[in-house]
Design brief:
about 400 residues, mainly alpha, RNA_pol_sigma_r3/r4-like, RNA polymerase subunit sigma, DUF6596, WH-like_DNA-bd_sf
C-alpha cells in the first residue's frame, strides 16, 4: 500500500484540476483563484491528516468531501467572499450546492467543460493552450516554455494577460453550442497533444516518461470521442496516436531509468491490446476527408509497430506531408532519421548538415547517430555536443551510453 507521501502527488496531479473545475461552477471562472485556493487547502489538509490518521478507505471521495465543506465555509464566513462575490451569486442559480453535483459524472463533465471554457477565443490560441496547460494540467512555467520553445518570462507575461482577459470577459462554465465547440476544439486537441507529449518525453523531470500524464491525456481524449459534438476524425486520430505510442512505453526504459532506443527495444514488451485500440481509432478517424497532423502522426506511429519491409518508405512519405502541414525542427530531424533508413546515412548527413541548427541537441544527437560507423571521431564530437546542450538528465545518460559504446568499439 502506498504511503501518503507517495499517493498525494499522484492524486494532486489527477484531481486538482478537476476539483478546481467543479468549484468554478460555483464561483465562476472569473474567481478561479478562490477555487484554486480551496483545492490547494484541501490537499494541504490531506497532507497533514493522512500521515497521522492513515489514508482513508476512499481517498478521492475524502478529498471532495473536504473541498465541499470548505466551499460551505466560504459561503458562511469568508468576508471577502461576502463582500465581493456573494452579491453577484445571490441573483444566480449557483448558490446552492446540490449533492448530486459531486458525483463522478459531474466531476468529469465539469473538467471537460472547463477545458472548453478556458480555450476561449478572447485569447490567442497560444495563450489559450498556455492557460489550459497551467490550470488544467498542472504544468510549471518551465514545462509550458519548453512546449512553446519560449522563455519562462515570456510565458509568465502571456499567462497574466490571458487571465486578465478572461476576467474582463466575465466568462463562466456554460453549455456551449455546436458552433462554439467546433471553434474551440482544435485548441483543446492541441492542449491534450502537448499534455501527452510531456508525459511521453519529459525533459524537465528526472524521469523521461511520466505515465500519469499520458494516461490523463488519453482519458480526456477518450471523453471527446464519446461525445457526439466532439467525436471528430481529428479527435479519433489523436487517440489512435496516443494508443500506438503508449503501446511501446513498457519497452522504452530499462531498470536504470535509461531510454532504450527504438531499434534496441524488446518488441515482446509492446502492449498489443493498445495497438489494437490504435487500429480501431485510426479506422474511426478515416471517416470524412479531413487529414490533420494527428492523422499523419498516427500513421507514422502505426508503421513503427509493424515489421513490413516497406515501412520506412511509408514513414518518410508521411513525414514529407507532415513537414508541409506543420513545420517544426523536431519533425524535420525525425524525417531525416527516416530518410537515412530509406536511402543511407551518408545521404542523410548531407541533408542534415545543411540545417546548421547549432543550438539544438537533437540535431547533434542525430548527427552522432548518422556518423557512427562512418566517422566515429565525428560521431563522438556530435554526441558530446548533444550532451552539452541537453537539459534532460535521462537523455544525457542515454547519450553517454552511446559514447561509451563508440569509445569501446561496440557501436
Amino acid at each position: 500500500m502506498k504511503s501518503p507521501q507517495e499517493l498525494l502527488p499522484h492524486l494532486f496531479r489527477q484531481e486538482y484540476a478537476k476539483m478546481t473545475a467543479v468549484l468554478c461552477r460555483h464561483f465562476g471562472l472569473q474567481h478561479i483563484e478562490l477555487a484554486e485556493d480551496i483545492a490547494s487547502d484541501t490537499f494541504l489538509k490531506a497532507s497533514e491528516h493522512w500521515p497521522v490518521h492513515g489514508i482513508p478507505k476512499h481517498p478521492v471521495a475524502w478529498l471532495y468531501t473536504v473541498a465541499k465543506n470548505k466551499l460551505k465555509d466560504y459561503y458562511k464566513h469568508l468576508s471577502v467572499f461576502e463582500q465581493k462575490v456573494k452579491p453577484a451569486l445571490l441573483n444566480s442559480e449557483q448558490k446552492a450546492i446540490p449533492e448530486q453535483e459531486w458525483d463522478h459524472r459531474y466531476i468529469e463533465d465539469s473538467f471537460l467543460a472547463m477545458i472548453f471554457a478556458v480555450c476561449n477565443p478572447v485569447n490567442t490560441p497560444e495563450s489559450q493552450i498556455c492557460l489550459a496547460l497551467q490550470i488544467l494540467c498542472g504544468f510549471s512555467m518551465e514545462e509550458i516554455a519548453r512546449a512553446f520553445l519560449s522563455k519562462p518570462e515570456t510565458i509568465k507575461k502571456r499567462l497574466q494577460r490571458a487571465r486578465q482577459y478572461l476576467r474582463n470577459d466575465g466568462f463562466n462554465i456554460v453549455a456551449l453550442d455546436r458552433t462554439a465547440i467546433q471553434k474551440r476544439l482544435n485548441t483543446v486537441l492541441k492542449t491534450l497533444y502537448l499534455l501527452y507529449n510531456e508525459g511521453y518525453y519529459s525533459v524537465t523531470h528526472d524521469t523521461q516518461i511520466r505515465a500519469e500524464l499520458c494516461s490523463e491525456a488519453m482519458r480526456l481524449t477518450l471523453l471527446l470521442t464519446e461525445n457526439r459534438l466532439t467525436n471528430t476524425p481529428a479527435a479519433n486520430a489523436l487517440l489512435a496516436l496516443m494508443c500506438y505510442q503508449s503501446s511501446r512505453l513498457p519497452a522504452r526504459m530499462n531498470e536504470h531509468n535509461e531510454t532504450i532506443l527504438f531499434e534496441e527495444q524488446d518488441v515482446r514488451l509492446w502492449d498489443q491490446s493498445l495497438i489494437q485500440r490504435g487500429h480501431y481509432y485510426l479506422i474511426q478517424a478515416t471517416e470524412g476527408a479531413e487529414v490533420s497532423k494527428y492523422h499523419l502522426e498516427a500513421g507514422i506511429a502505426y508503421w513503427h509497430t509493424t515489421t513490413d519491409a516497406s515501412k520506412w518508405n511509408r514513414i518518410l512519405q508521411l513525414y514529407n506531408q507532415l513537414v508541409l502541414l506543420e513545420y517544426s525542427p523536431i519533425t524535420v530531424l525525425n524525417r531525416l532519421f527516416a530518410y537515412s533508413k530509406v536511402y543511407c546515412k551518408k545521404m542523410a548527413i548531407e541533408e542534415t548538415e545543411r540545417l546548421e541548427s547549432s543550438e539544438n541537441n537533437y540535431y547533434y544527437a542525430l548527427l552522432g547517430y548518422l556518423y557512427t560507423d562512418i566517422d566515429n571521431e565525428k560521431a563522438v564530437y556530435h554526441y558530446e555536443r548533444a550532451i552539452q546542450l541537453s537539459r534532460s538528465v535521462v537523455e544525457k545518460r542515454t547519450l553517454q551510453r552511446q559514447l561509451v559504446k563508440l569509445r569501446d568499439g561496440n557501436s
